[in-house]
Amino acid sequence: MSSTPLAMGTSGGTLAATIAFSFLMGALALYTLLHHREVFAWMKQIRKTDAEDAVYDEPDQWLADLYKAQCRRAKKPSRAEDMEDISQTGDMLRGVAGHIEAIRPELAKVVERVDDYLDTALPAPTPALKVSHQDHQVQLVQAMKQEAARAELAQAISSARQKITVLRRG
């Protein structure tokens, strides 16, 4: 007895292989579709997180600049004209402190510490050739107050930057 092929060049084995291959390709297409859906959802979440974190970029950069500026003045008594960059950065932070709710207390503390530090600026030098002992003592006390205010400013900056890092990590 001979078997009759279903169509010219087609036998039962070839037909079964074609059907099995079709199911395999369908399963692969379904897996690919599900995988792409997960990837696109992940990318959407990453974009959302990046957009939320962009709010902290400028304040974080200003805090970094402020930290560098105050480090340059460590253990160096400064006059008001030497503190221009600290004053300017403090004003920029004051401008955004009220707009970013999540770090408002930290930025307010930094701005307060900047003001305290700026208040300790040494007076302009007098044209006197010789400084009295009393004036020298006053300047030393003022310089020590300035250094203490600078250390408090550095601590406030570090605290604010840590808060931003925690918020970015989520």
UniProtKB/TrEMBL annotation:
<feature type="transmembrane region" description="Helical">
    <location>
        <begin position="12"/>
        <end position="34"/>
    </location>
</feature>
<keyword id="KW-1133">Transmembrane helix</keyword>
<keyword id="KW-0812">Transmembrane</keyword>
<keyword id="KW-0472">Membrane</keyword>
<protein>
    <submittedName>
        <fullName>Uncharacterized protein</fullName>
    </submittedName>
</protein>
